[in-house]
Amino acid sequence: MRQINEAYSYCKKIIETHSKTFSKAFSLLPKKQKRAVWAIYAFCRKVDDIVDEGSSPKSELDEFERNFHNFLEGEIPGNDPMWIALADVFSSFSMDSVYFQEMIDGQRKDIDSHVVETEEELLLYCYQVASTVGLMLLPVLAPGKEAELRQSAIDLGKGMQLTNILRDVGEDIERERIYIPKTLLDTYGYSYEQLRNHERNEAFIQLWEDLAVKAEKYYDSSLMSIHEYPLYSRTPVKGAAYLYRAILPSIRDNQYQVFNERNFVSDQVKKNILSDIQLMKA
Q1: What is the CATH classification number for the domain harbouring 49?
Q2: Half-sphere CA count of 110, side-chain side, radius 13 A
Q3: Taking the model in full, what pTM does it have?
Q4: If we measure between CA atoms, which residue out of 138, 115, 113, 151 comes closest to residue 233?
Q5: Could you tell me if 44 and 259 are in contact, meaning their C-beta atoms sit under 8 angstroms apart?
């Protein structure tokens, strides 16, 4: 038991370090569910860090994938605390390994330069790297409701990932990643050259808003079935959606400065959002 507790503490530090938004939102869950979220987040974070920061991301991701398959066979790779915690999650909840594999597959697309051509391609990528997280979490957040809430989880993931993309335009360009679809750039008469030159003109604002409105529609649709979640999950799920969605107006308020600045939602605004949600009738 001590080993499992220490493993969860390790995962907790990962989520607190890398995502204060998720950490705040899901801190409202009961202990068992909260700890499961920490472990699932740690898995996703490790995949992301391999791709973004690994010295040899392709071979490191291949090794991680092999470790995952070994994990599914009952092995704890390298006695890693993340796998120890995740094994406890898999034994406690009806987890579906397919979504974990889809996450790995989606992240693999980012190993080399990644330029998205169409909106369909963009939404598939958003599903693989973000909607899968929601689908991983459903057995924890709403056991027995996975089928009813599948589309809700998918939509929330797409809204969040589009928000990430709209926030991180400049940072992604530095990594040779352009997630704004070529078809959308063409629609608004904005070029790759202008994007790389950080031109923040009317055409850029229009295409940015095109994707932002889509993201906001995904947030709206994801919460239409919030009543299907157990009471203990409703506020955390709403919190995650509202906190992430708040990034979009913060960017608007900052005059669409997404090339050289990291836009964020202040701790006070986050507290206000969570407080308002808790006052709502769930």
Answers
A1: 1.10.600.10
A2: 25
A3: 0.94
A4: 138
A5: no
Q: What are phi and psi of 184, to 5 degrees?
A: -75, -40
248, 233 Cβ separation under 8 angstroms:
no
Sign of the dihedral defined by the CA atoms of residues 178, 183, 188, 192, in that order? positive
> Would you list the DSSP string of 174-225?
HTTEE-S-HHHHHHTT--HHHHHTT---HHHHHHHHHHHHHHHHHHHHHTTT
Give the pair of three-digit tokens for residue 243. 């906190």
CA distance 205 to 117: 19
Q: Which domain holds residue 260?
A: 2-279
> Which residues, other chains included, contact 111 with Cβ-Cβ below 8 Å and sequence gap of 6+?
51, 57, 58, 61
Nearest to 248 by CA among 143, 163, 128, 129: 163
8 Å CB contact between 222 and 249:
no
Domains held by the chain: number: 1
Per-residue pLDDT tens for 218-254?
A: 999 999 999 999 999 999 999 999 999 999 999 999 9
Q: Which two tokens stand for residue 166?
A: 């709209």
